[in-house]
Amino acid sequence: MSTSRRLYSAAPDPVHDSTSPDPRSLPEQSTGTPRAGPEAASHPAPRSQPLTQAQRDFLSSALRVNQAGELAAVLIYTHQTPPIIASHPHLRPLMKHMYDQEEGHLTTFNNLLAKHRIRPTAMYPVWRLAASALGWSTAVMGREAAMACTEAVETEIGSHYNEQVRYLLDMVEQMEKNGQKVSEEILDLMKTIRRIRDEELEHLDYAVENDAKGARPYELLTGVIRAGCRGAIWISERV
User: Can you give the pTM of this predicted structure?
Assistant: First the structure.
């Protein structure tokens, strides 16, 4: 099911550039200031057009995979927290902080899926089981392995959110070039994804600060988890 047509208005599908800079270094796009009086008559308001099919498909798959990813994060922390704080009580505030943020992210995407009538991924039950098992198993391996899990997951999720922000920036830029009105919902979505991305990258920093790289075997563990994340993202975007 695709996003509702009333949700957004946009321009033709932008061309991606793999060399695009980190979106955090790019300025916010401006839709200009409203005109009034005689100036308004000579400069009519930008027209609004529906999304192209490619843009609707992108936004539908993006929100679906984001919701699945945040569900997985909540379940990972749910199953990591008891073993970790049992052996490292001083980590209780950090684990709660990261869990609370992930729970907030999940609520955000749950609401967006419901609002725009986008179905969750069909792999939902599988991801629930996989995330729970990953959280519990890395916690049992020890604090370093649990933090390495966070580092690996957040590395892939941060990169994924960066790609979405770049796409939305390209979309807004093309809309403005075409004289089209930029939907407030598009701008709000871009800001929301940027905020969530930055919080995910904070989790990555916390993991490194708490000896993620001390996990054994670090390279194998993080490599397997990152590959699993990429595979889950690819599947959830399509199924």
Answer: 0.77
